[in-house]
Amino acid sequence: MMAEIPTYVYGVATAGAVRTPLRAQGMPDGQSPVTAIAVGGASAIVGRHAGPTMNGLPRPELLRRLAIHQRVIEDALERGDVLPAQFGTVLSSEDEVRMLLTGWGGLVRASLARFSGLVEVEVAATWDLQRVLGDVARDPEVMKAKSAAVQAPRQERLAQQVNVGKVVKEVLDRRRARCQQMLLEAAGPLAECVQPNALLSDELVFNVAFLLRRPVMAEFEAAIDRLDAELGGSCLLRVIGPLPPYTFGTVSITRFDAERLAAGRALLGLAGQISEQAVLSSYRQLARQFHPDSQPAGTDAAQRFAALNAARADLLAYARGRAWVDAADGPALMVTIGRSEQDGAVLDGRR
Fold first, then answer.
1. d(CA 140, CA 69)
2. What is the pLDDT of residue 138?
3. Per-residue pLDDT at 51
4. pLDDT at 272
5. Which of 34, 95, 132, 333 could potentially form a cystine with 26 if both were Cys, beta carbons 3.0 to 4.6 Å apart?
6. Quick one: average pLDDT of 138-163?
7. Cα 258 to the chain's mean position, in Å?
8. What is the dihedral of CA 186, 187, 190, 194, to 10 degrees?
9. Residue 331 pLDDT grade (very low, low, confident, very high; cuts 50, 70, 90)
10. At what angle do helices 217-231 and 154-187 cross, to 10 degrees?
11. SS3 sequence, the chain?
12. What are the pLDDT digits (tens) for 282-314?
């Protein structure tokens, strides 16, 4: 029996899209072979994975490998429609990849068809924070708060100074919101879907992902140019793309084992076939009973409620996904394809 070789999954594509050889640019060195495994009209873009797990890597190495992951997917995008797998997805072997495509080929093909001809474009804006803060200092609300802080009695001065900071933040947030609204009004009507992303630094004004059809790209870029002129240089705009639909069509592969599902069943009091309705009904009943707000202080209500929520998430995903290996027989893989986890929207996974 051949030893299992862990296999890294970069993404999925139609079988015809990756017939031509892919460049040797995979992990861990950016020069390792990248191949495609095709089953029934769908294919997975893969490479051997020699370890270690992504969880054990320092941040600089994680970022380096993420760049390799994205380079492989973006190369495949030049050949045809592709959906990216979640970064760090590793299956036990190429045979397990084939089993995945056999069991979930219907979902993969349907999702590729749904996203056919669609690309993601990210638009981000930054501003000179010191310059903006100088401008905000002249805002009437801020000036009023500063005056109140200066005139406040000593015992109230600290609270008033804290209030100045709060008012400054509110003014900055309103300016950010106004700039983002201008972007959405200018470019949103051209998009199939829009997703504002989290702002990870004070210098960021907005960071929005757009799902676009390729033919509207020129019109979209013209809209961004008009917005740039309207903003009058107050922000520095960056347009990144076209990209695979990282935000809207990421492939997530989750492994469940029998013990985890059995524990969830027991906690929710479920037997027999798991259905979405049964999971939700049981969860709602137990959640009302064990919500921390209804329990005496000092009990383990918070931990029990967290366990209920975890069991609900596991069993809902399993029921919606119809995992291709029965849980009683061992580990199961479930596939969802859709938006990133921040808004919980996924396509139902049905074979």
1. 49
2. 87
3. 77
4. 77
5. 34
6. 85
7. 27
8. -130
9. low
10. 140
11. CCCCCCEEEEEEEEHHHHCCCCCCCECCCCCECCEEEEECCEEEEEEECCCCCHHHCCHHHHHHHHHHHHHHHHHHHCCCCEEEECCCCEECCHHHHHHHHHHHHHHHHHHHHHCCCEEEEEEEEECCHHHHHHHHCCCHHHHHHHHHHHHCCHHHHHHHHHHHHHHHHHHHHHHHHHHHHHHHHHHHHHCCEEEECCCCCCCEEEEEEEEEEHHHHHHHHHHHHHHHHHHCCCCEEEEEEEECCCCCCEEEEEEECHHHHHHHHHHHCCCCCCCHHHHHHHHHHHHHHHCHHHCCCCCCHHHHHHHHHHHHHHHHHHHHHCCCCCHHHCCEEEEEEECCCCCCCEECCCC
12. 999 888 887 777 766 656 777 888 888 888 888
The one-letter code for the residue type at 275 is S
**Lookup: tokens for 208:** 């929005």
Q: Is the pLDDT of residue 345 over 50?
A: no
Q: Are 262 and 331 in contact (CB under 8 A)?
A: no
By CB atoms closer than 10 A (0-12, 13-18, 19+), residue 49 is: buried
Distance CA 105, CA 111 (A): 10
pLDDT exceeding 90 applies to what percent of the chain? Answer: 40
d(CA 349, CA 201): 35
Q: Alpha-carbon distance 314 to 56, whole Å? A: 25
CB 261 within 8 Å of CB 312: no
The answer to whether residues 242 and 76 touch, using CB atoms and an 8 Å cutoff, is no
pLDDT (tens digit per residue) in 217-268: 999 999 999 999 999 888 899 999 899 999 999 998 887 777 888 888 899 9
Task: Identify the bridge partners of residue 252 per DSSP, sorted by sequence position.
Answer: 336
- For the record, the structure tokens of 134 come out as 């100088």
Going by C-beta distance under 8 Å and a sequence separation of 6 or more, which residues neighbour residue 28? 50, 65, 68
